[in-house]
Amino acid sequence: MKFEKIHHVAIIASDYAASKKFYTEILELPIIRENYRAERDSYKLDLQLGESEIELFSFPNPPARPSTPEAVGLRHLCFYVDDVEAVVAELNRKGVETEPIRLDDYTNKKFTFFQDPDGLPLELHE
Question: Which Gene Ontology molecular function entries are recorded, alphabetically (predicted)?
Fold first, then answer.
């Protein structure tokens, strides 16, 4: 058995329009396709992220995330970038708050965190 790469990450949004705007206009991820699934009253937006995808879903009344990143389960989504400082500056210009940039103790690479409209922790890492 050999796992090659991550195909996609799925995110459920509480406010589909706000999350769609965040991921497509703020993070500038290209739209692959968008479908409305009437039987589930749900949108599914596929976004390109390198060789992977992010699936953005809407569902009626989804439950809130249990707690901050220390909850059991997926902790956060991390984006590799060439220049954390440049991406942070651009996010800040677009009104996205970011944590202070830190150095990874093990790799000595820069990283920081920010959040999507639902408070999902997102990381930038060089």
Answer: dioxygenase activity; metal ion binding
